[in-house]
Amino acid sequence: MTTAIAALSSTAGRSHLQESLFSWLAPESTPSLPETKALVESDPEGPSEPPAEEEKADLSHVWVVAAEIEVIPKIAKLADYRGSFKATEGQRIDALEVYCKGCRRPYDEVTGQDCSAKIDNRHLIGGDQSTRAKRKIPVPPRNARVVPGGRIQRRGIEAYVGGVSRPPR
């Protein structure tokens, strides 16, 4: 069995894709010998690359609007089911509040400042978790008596047989 291999013509639509796909296989041009000696003598690690410019993180706010839109019952049912709906063209929408999607702070409080959620979002999770107060265990009433229960096996075959990990029929 013979296989014919033909190069893609330059007029073919995908030839540039094939060339760019295998371009990394082409040997790179190497500097001539005197230039190499000069590089080795001046810097043993090779040519130094210019310092890469660090891109500054985008700390701007992402503004969202909490809105109140009057809809017909059919659209209300659809919006409740899907979680979204399409408003009609030219419909007036009342804005209840404008706030940042990240830090959840009002527009007028943080306009012109960086978004604090993009810097550090600990304020959104209730502060620093390592220094937070522990949850308080409720105190039982005076006349209550604590009765220890049996041990529940939650793993292994005993749990399956006992019905812990099985859905009820």
Task: Provide a descriptive summary of the structure in words.
- This protein is α+β, with helices and mostly antiparallel strands and 169 residues long.
- 24% of the residues lie in helices and 8% in strands.
- It contains six helices and two strands; from the N terminus they run H-H-E-H-E-H-H-H.
- The protein has a two-stranded antiparallel ribbon with strand order 1-2.
- The longest helix has 10 residues, at 33-42.
- The mean pLDDT is 74.
**Mean pLDDT reading:** 74
Report the major sheet. 2 strands, antiparallel
Low-confidence stretches: none
Number of strands: 2
Using brief descriptors, characterize the structure shown.
24% helix, 169 residues, alpha+beta, 2 strands, two-stranded antiparallel ribbon
Q: Could you outline the blueprint of secondary structure elements for this entry?
A:
Layout: H1 15-21, H2 33-42, E1 63-68, H3 73-82, E2 94-100, H4 107-110, H5 116-119, H6 157-162
Antiparallel strand pairs: 1-2
In short:
By secondary structure, the chain is α+β, with helices and mostly antiparallel strands. It has six helices and two strands, in the order ααβαβααα.
